[in-house]
Amino acid sequence: MNKSKPKSILKNNQTLINLWSAELINRSSYMTGKFALPFFAKNLGASTTLIGTISSISTLTGIFLKPIIGGIGDTFNKKQLLLLANLIFALTPLFYIFIDQTYQLVIIRLFHGLSTAIYGPITLAIISTVYTNQRATYLGWFGTARTIGYLVGPILGGLLMLYYDSKNLFFLTGIISFISFIPIILDKNSSSTVIRKKSKSREIILFIKKLFTITKLKQVWIVSLIEWSFYAVFYSMKVFVPIYLVNSGYNTLIAGSFLTTVEIIHIILRPLGGISGDKFGYYKNIIFGLLLLSVSMFFVSFTINSSTIFIPAILIGISEASVLPSALALVSEYSKNDNIGTVMGIVGSIRNFGKVAGPIFIGILLEKLSYQSVFQIIGITNILVVLFIIMIFIFSSMIKQKNN
Questions:
Q1: Which are the contacts of 180, defined by CB distance < 8 A and separation ≥ 6?
Q2: What sign results for the dihedral spanned by CA atoms 13, 16, 21, 24?
Q3: Averaged over 231-255, what is the pLDDT?
Q4: Could you tell me where the DSSP H helices lie in 281-370?
Q5: Residue 183 belongs to a domain with what CATH number?
Q6: Alpha-helical regions (H) of 13-101
Q7: At what angle do helices 78-91 and 166-177 cross, to 10 degrees?
Q8: What is the domain count for the chain?
Q9: Residue 4 domain flag
């Protein structure tokens, strides 16, 4: 009895283990290269605006494709989509060695974005569908794979950049990504599809109707605003704080260690963040996390000495652990199993818009203002967004009370 229990636990969580492993491999290699990307662009002669654009433009692909990919995943074979994403993950970095102009880097980053545009909504949809109970908890555990990748990538990238150039670093990340084919091929649940009794044209019409129906849900737009606000700030930090630190006299290893510290705190607290969201409420966790993110950006603007440099990194990590599991669970709460991929795709698209808009806007500001001033502007802007979200909740509650 005791021997069969571990086997049963392993079998019940096989999909989580397989997708977790693939996510870990891909994110680790991807983030190793992504840490080097702003420095790669800077070495090519890019301005801060162009650095922000290059660093975030890969997510532009996801803005338009994630809802479509999510809808396709609701109907067609998810494993095939994951294998396609994996192929892009592995092959694209091999071509970075041929880049010597900024426009070439823009083009290849756009194509590279296809991998995450497919990978994100499909993996989340599989986890949410297979584990219908305690979704936030399972999503929290699955998210640790991505977080470990975010943890390993920056510090490894910072270390390697002390000895190797960016082109060779990207080539290595592509080779590593080929390993992630193994757990995806081994997984069985990711091959599940909805039984199709209708024609393809009928399915397309139904998908479009479903898409419009979902976009009418107020909760979807509230969660989208939350995620947009968080990721606009978070991705701006990931692009420009390392450059700020290197410009202040630190080496790339210290800059990478800053981002790794963020993810160390995140990975420790993320499962607790998911459990806390299930127990105390998703909105409370989210508001707390967004406010803490604002405070951390103020702290970054005043931090230039080695004794306090990692304090804002700790605060950002706590913020990330508070916001992300609850935001994902909030999306699942207003979704059905047959449209959860589409909902994840819609929210993911708006989330990606924040990832793109944030670094570009901050890059523009940095053409005119100092890093310290811009970081303070980020903090103030995020607080205003939080206040706006709170006002929406208060207004909605007042309407409900009047109707009752």
A1: 21, 22, 25, 26, 86, 89, 90
A2: negative
A3: 90
A4: 282-301, 311-333, 340-366
A5: 1.20.1250.20
A6: 14-43, 48-56, 60-75, 78-91
A7: 150
A8: 1
A9: no
| b/e per residue 220-248 (b: at least 16 CB within 10 A) | bebbbbbbbbbbbbbbbbbbbbbbbbbee
For residue 191, the enclosing domain spans 9-403
- Check: CB of residue 41 under 8 Å from CB of residue 240: no
What pLDDT band is residue 341 in, cutting at 50, 70 and 90? low
Is-contact 71 345, C-beta < 8 A?
yes
Task: Say if residue 15's pLDDT is above 90.
Answer: no
In a domain, 87, yes or no: yes
pLDDT > 70: percent of the chain: 80
Least confident of 24-28, 141-145, 299-303, 337-341: 337-341
Spatial distance between the Cα atoms of 54 and 110, rounded to a whole number of angstroms: 9
First to last CA, the chain: 54
Contact between 299 and 290 under an 8 Å Cβ cutoff? The reply is no
Half-sphere exposure of 200 (CA within 13 A, CB side): 2
CA separation (Å) from 253 to 148, 259, 314? 17, 10, 17
- Is residue 3 one of the residues assigned to a domain? no
Asked whether residue 1 is assigned to any structural domain, the reply reads no
CA of 26: how far to CAs of 146, 178, 215, 341, in Å? 8, 9, 31, 21
